[in-house]
Amino acid sequence: MNRNIQRLVLAVVAAVLVPACARAESAVGAPAPDFTLSDLNGKAHHLADYRGRVVVLEWLNPNCPFSRRHAEEGTMTRTAAAHSDVVWLGINSTGKKHGDFVTPDKQASYDKEHGITYPVLYDSDGKVGHEYGASTTPHMFVIDEQGKVIYRGAIDDDPYGRGKKRTNYVDAALTAHAAGKPVQPASTTSYGCSVKYGG
Amino acid sequence: MTLAVKAAVSRWSDHRVVASRLVAGAPAADGTPRLGLHFRLAPEWHVYWRHPGDAGAPPQVAVAAGGVPIPSEISYPAPQRFRLPGGLEALGYAGEVVYPLRLASPPPAGSTITASLDYVACAVECIPYHDELAVTLPVAASSTASGEDELLRRWEARLPRAVEAAGVEWRLRYRTGEAPEIELEVAPDAASSIGGAPPTPTAAASSSDATPGGATAVPTKGPPELFLEPAPGATFASPERIAGDAGAMRFRAAVRPDVAGQPPQRLRVAWTLTRAMANDVALAGVVTVPAGGQVGTSGEASNARSAARSRRDAARQERVPRGALVALLALVPLVAALLLWLIPERLALPAIPPSWLRGASFLAAAVLVWSAYRLGALLPTTQVAVVELSWLAIALAAQGAAAASAVTRRRLWLALALLAAAAGVWAAWSPAMLSS
Predict the structure, then answer these.
(1) CA distance A110 to B285
(2) Nearest CA of chain A to the CA of B27: how many Å?
(3) Which one of A121, B32, B119, B391 has the fewest CB atoms closer than 10 angstroms to its CB?
């Protein structure tokens, strides 16, 4: 009898877990999924610890030409510097077995070369990337002081870096939010390489 | 006597995995130039549709005639869907594609057109390219078409046709609530063939066709596919084909509001449907549908019966939500699993080996897990949790009933199980109950 109960409980637990694996998305206005990820120095960053500050998440991949162009042009570092009170976190969700995966050493030298001083967090199992619905590099998320997503999408409106006049959506979102104005647009279609998830 | 130049091409800009060139066909009947951006891609590589899907970007072009910029617009043939690791998808073209290019103002024939082209090609990795292409516009139309003109014509024929012009019956529904979704039904007459069949690909191997870059386009066969573009205020999940009436195609796609819990009150749906018509012509429509509403063609006489049937189906579906149906059906494998687990100890069933019983019960459990998965897609998490808790309660009550020796007590346990089953189905039935 006890074994029967064990089996039943196991079956139901399995049934409960399956829908939990269904795709989650972080829409604008929804609470940003919490996470704890380590940076290149092994320091853990817990999103909830930054409650009370605005956080920018940047999905990146040093082997993606779109990420690399923005690193070379300093798009991210300049935007971060213009809003120095903002916590800027890079996230690399590349799967460990993917050819685009870089070791923390390589990532560190890439960061140094491009003047990237903000932490780059490793999400090699892609769990956090999937929770946010990050699909491209770069893919940007702005989270307000209360932990809600206030912008998600592209860094700017110029996928190929050709336009002389660009709209930097993240800069616009941070500026509007700091002035107490609503973020407009709050959602755009991101562009770039696909996130090289391991699974 | 030889005729004047009928078509012209730029040189190939070859990057090994992808090559691009600018093609100019004979001018259209009204004198407007016909241009196209021609790509050839190595196996595994693709370039993008207007809406690239989860990643990538559509091509961008800046056109000038004699150094004077001319506004232009890229047209997009019906795309293909590519599955990427991590559950992502890309929408675009593999092998070969020609994007027809329309100029806002026609330059004089004989002028040189330059195209400053940006695009990204992806396989496992993505590479953005920049090409400078130049072509001299053909002077006059002619009766015989060259290989390039034929190529351009072939791809122009693959541009989706407006559904209104195709005379095809269609209907789009927009349901809101906890899990907003749209449902599109298209009922092309099996014999319908709009605008004539696309010209058959000819072996147009002109001298300039010595191609770097790779594979030739093979019109892909397969089931009809629906492509949806992001709307203001929302995006769509990858559409899922569902059973439709005979001859009709029905698709469903979850609506993902940009702002959590706020699906647009009026939803703009730009859709493209491939392989729906007998002649492989893609259909496209752009329509705005109010929340909870429905738009589409009104049923015509010949299709009145099928339309009435769809309406009846729709009414039935609205009375019993799909989530409730799945929850109800899930009770069957649950009861089966419980019986198989519990009966052998009460009743001697010598004819059936115990391993068979165990196998069948695991099969039932698997169906149950699948039901839970389906529920996860149909219902909000809270409702799924309540349904599953009801299953647990049923299982425990059944266990209690099997263990109880007194008849009254057994009946009490079974009544509890029934109550739990009713609660589960009810939770799936009424979305209002659990919405916070």
Answers:
(1) 46
(2) 30
(3) B32
> Which A-chain residues 20-39 have CB contacts (< 8 A) with chain B?
20, 22-23, 25, 27-30
Structure confidence at residue A192 (pLDDT) = 95
pLDDT above 50 for A18: no
Measured between CA atoms, the residue of chain B closest to residue A9 is B392
- Residue of chain A whose alpha carbon sits nearest to that of B378: A19
Residue B193, number of CB atoms within 10 A of its CB:
15
pTM confidence score: 0.71
Q: Which amino acid is at B231?
A: A
CB B79 within 8 A of CB B272: yes
Taking each helix axis from N to C end, the angle separating A75-82 and A65-73, rounded to the nearest 10 degrees, works out to 50
pLDDT above 60 (res B301) = no
**In this structure, which amino acid lies at residue B232?**
P
Stronger pLDDT, B360 or B49, i.e. the higher one:
B49
pLDDT computed for residue A166 by the predictor: 92
A198 in contact with B, Cβ within 8 Å:
yes
Give the pairing type, strands B283-290 and B161-162: parallel
The pLDDT tens digits for A30-79 are 999 999 999 999 999 999 999 999 999 999 999 999 999 999 999 999 99
- Above 90 in pLDDT, residue B297? no
Name the strand (E) or helix (H) holding B119.
strand B112-122
Give the closest-approach CA distance of A199 to chain B in angstroms: 5
Contact A149, A166 (CB under 8 A): no
Asked if A12 and B388 come within 8 Å (Cβ–Cβ), the reply is yes
Q: Does A135 touch chain B (CB under 8 A)?
A: yes
Chains A & B: contacts with CB separation below 8 Å: 149
What contacts B12, CB < 8 A, 6 or more positions away? B19, B20, B21, B40, B211, B212, B213
